[in-house]
What we know:
By secondary structure, the chain is of the alpha/beta class. It is built from 14 helices and twelve strands. Strands 1, 2, 5, 6, 7, 8, 9, 10, 11 and 12 form a ten-stranded mixed sheet that branches. It starts with 14 loop residues before the first strand and ends with a strand. Mean pLDDT is 87; it is low at 1-7 and 372-386.
Amino acid sequence: MSQGIENPNPATLGQQVLVLQGGGALGAYQVGVYQALDQFGIDLDWVVGTSIGAINAAIIAGSPRSERMQRLRAFWKRVEHGHVFDDILPSLLSSPLRNWLAVSTGIAGFFKPRALAFLSPHITLGPGEAGYYSVTRLKDTLSDLIEFDLLRTGSTRLTVGAANVETSEMTYFDSRAMALDIRHVLASGALPPAFPAVEIDGHHYWDGGIFSNTPVEVVFDDNPRRNSIVYAVHVWNPEGAAPQTMSEVENRRKDVQYSSRSAAHIARQRQLHRLRHVITQLADLLPVENRTDPKIRDLASYGCRTRMHVVRLLAPRLGHEDYSKDLDFSPSGIRQRWEAGYAHTMRVLESAPWRGEFDPLEGFVLHEAMGGESRGAELILSPTAL
């Protein structure tokens, strides 16, 4: 915690939830966010993630609190890549060379090429092998860093999202409902065609990001609903200029695809939560003798009094990034995103935008924390009750 800053104790407003998007190397920003939350003394009740977000989330929930940062640092150190290019070349030149090396030889601690997949697209590999890269390295890395027994006995709930290959449905694997293991985390990060599907109980799963890369809806739809502060961490930019080059086209395509209709999710949840509060207030206006009527009680059950404060943190664009930014596991790229996540989150926590008066009908209050271009982790904070 920063010196001289009084902790506003957000825990008094309900459960503390951290939601992490998928985005490969962009997930370094999420580690900075968690570092700030931890330093501020916030004890997370629930961590939700997809893809790299699922990996970060599983390390957080699957580690003793005193060791979480140490293990997150260990993971990101293991997947660092391209040191030599960073040391001798400017970023404009080092980035494409580093990413070419990752595609051609893999990344230590993460993935390696599967030779047969590159020979021909028509070679039969089988569901568990049909991917350009093997993630055996990642499996070993995560097995070292995550205590899966702790997911069953610890106080921090973990939810990871994956897409069912056979049914095209989003599936959330939740430690509150089942015993999670390495397969569930690997399934959430099995992005095709790079990585093969992961089989769990007779079904095959791909990276949840191909269906919904912003898994915050699982929090909004949880039953029973609880008062919450939800730190929703976005690593893909939902807004951006129209592209003028083919490189910019591919970069913007990824942002559009993987930001996952975040504005639509927010608008829908604002409406739903307001309706729930309206139902509750209407029920309160009924005569006491009518409230015991089974039909009225059933209708009134659709209402609720919970309030969710959603703090949306958005990773900044780095000056040198392009469409391969999610492969930028360079030491400098990881460091810049990590530092930005930490700086943005500390400013939000110190400003405590959830304090104040809000419309009693609003069950969903959004606080935007937007990371700007790479200008020393600049923050634009604009709390708004939707």
